[in-house]
Write a structure and sequence with these properties.
- The protein has 283 residues and is an alpha+beta fold.
- It contains 11 helices and 7 strands.
- The protein folds into 2 domains: 95 residues, no CATH class; 178 residues, YojJ-like (1 (3-Layer(aba) Sandwich).
- The chain is 58% helix and 14% strand.
- A 7-stranded mixed β-sheet has the order 2-4-3-1-5-6-7, sandwiched between helices.
- Helix 3 runs antiparallel to helix 4, helix 6 packs parallel to helix 8 and helix 6 runs antiparallel to helix 10.
Length: 283
């Protein structure tokens, strides 16, 4: 304990800066290799290093000699094996231009891409008159609803969304739950709305979309199987016959990163204004 206290007492500001920089670099490296084959290769290298050290401690000279020479030659092999990951890392550094783009800008670009994928998918389904029901989670958690379907945890893409809702596929008859930038689950069952004032023209899909919007703050997108019309539901209100431009605007205004900037004194005011606009759209 005395040695530990002595080490801690000798740590200065420069040491803290040095440790922080190294930790940040290792974190960025981990994020670059996360969910790639490089992650598994790194695990293998760590195992080899541990075995090499153990062979030295237990004086296993032959094994230690083989492992040390293997590691020496392996440095060249690593450059070949990790070539795609190294290229990706260099492209990332060049693209970010040493963080000249803020995290907020990167977040906006990411959300812009996601919203484009969703709008294009809805447009394609609308043209083909294929029914669809997408629930975008906000503050109210929808884990229980997601558990009623099939867990996906997949990136949002136009192709995947279209494929999910294609007729006669296992997951087409149900709702897709989106959390942040992932498709959390598909084929989920939603509660139907009990609102007696809803139009008789609305089918089960639209009543389910309105129902989940009544019980949560979710943003719901629906495509009619009969007409191909695109609709959205919020706070128990439905807005019908949206074009793709309006749909994208609604998605960005409701789910985009800019909405997080609103300070708490204006939350109720903005919600009420949005609620009133939705009522007008529904009319």
């Amino acid at each position: 304990m005395r040695d530990i206290l002595q080490i801690v007492s000798n740590i200065g500001v420069r040491d803290m800066v040095d440790i922080t920089i190294v930790a940040y670099v290792f974190y960025k490296i981990y994020m670059l290799i996360k969910e790639t084959r490089a992650k598994q290769l790194v695990k293998g290298i760590v195992v080899l290093l541990v075995v090499t050290q153990l062979s030295d401690w237990f004086q296993l000279h032959v094994m230690n000699w083989i492992l040390i020479n293997t590691m020496t030659v392996g440095l060249i092999a690593l450059l070949i094996v990790f070539q795609p990951e190294l290229r990706r890392a260099l492209e990332y550094i060049g693209r970010t231009k040493l963080l000249t783009k803020s995290m907020q800008e990167l977040e906006k670009e990411r959300f812009e891409h996601i919203s484009d994928e969703m709008v294009e998918a809805m447009s394609s389904l609308s043209r083909q008159k294929i029914g669809a029901l997408i629930v975008m989670e906000k503050e109210t958690g929808l884990s229980e609803v997601a558990e009623s379907g099939t867990n996906l945890d997949a990136d949002i893409s136009r192709g995947l969304l279209i494929n999910i809702f294609m007729p006669n596929t296992p997951l087409h008859d149900g709702a897709v739950i989106i959390r942040n930038d992932k498709i959390l689950a598909a084929g989920c069952f939603l509660p139907l709305s009990d609102n007696p004032s809803l139009s008789k023209e609305l089918g089960t899909r639209h009543r389910a979309g309105i129902g989940i919007s009544e019980k949560s703050d979710a943003f719901v997108i629906m495509v009619s199987e009969e007409t191909g019309a695109i609709s959205i539901a919020q706070h128990g209100k439905i807005s019908r016959f949206l074009d793709t431009k309006t749909l994208k605007t609604k998605i960005i205004n409701t789910m985009g990163p800019d909405r997080k900037k609103k300070t708490w004194p204006f939350i109720n005011l903005n919600w009420r204004k949005s609620h009133e606009n939705d009522e007008k759209d529904g009319e």
